[in-house]
Amino acid sequence: xxxxxxxxxILEARSTDDDVWVLIEHDxxxxxxxxxLPDGSxxxxxxxxxHTERLGFIPRFVxxxxxxRLGDLVWTTxxxxxxxxxxxxxLAAIEATGYRTFPVDVxxxxxxxxxxxxxxxxxxxxxxxxxxxxxxxxxxxxxxxSQVVDALIxxxxxxxxxxxxxxxx
Length: 169
Known about the structure:
The protein is an alpha+beta fold and 169 residues long. Helices cover 14% and strands 26% of the residues. The protein contains three helices and eleven strands. The longest helix has 9 residues, at 85-93. The N and C termini lie close together (9 Å). The model has no long low-confidence stretch (mean pLDDT 93).
């Protein structure tokens, strides 16, 4: 039976009508599907995995709904995760492992910044890390240790969905 320190949680952006949702755009338009670099690399996959240095641009996400609640994780389509600066500051403060950040622009429909956000990519499924895949692959939700959840809650970073991974079953 897992100890208190072994408990895992699943984090994800909230996605009610009240929450802000964003979609990626490129050159003011929805990007093509499939979206590939000249070498054949999948652009969506590069963004999801936080390897945006290969793109030559900063991914831009535009608000798509009338929601007004801006979370610490912002709902996107696909497997890209967008986190508030305060969320990643907590991860850095506790020296959490298993993630990388990358620059993103997050704007409203008129192009005004929505806040201070970064892209958040989970590195892999290594359960020895503080953040890891919850589903075996990069996905819109991810697993974290109780240390991460405790630090986020203590810092007031709670504008997101936190559920138990229920490893004790």
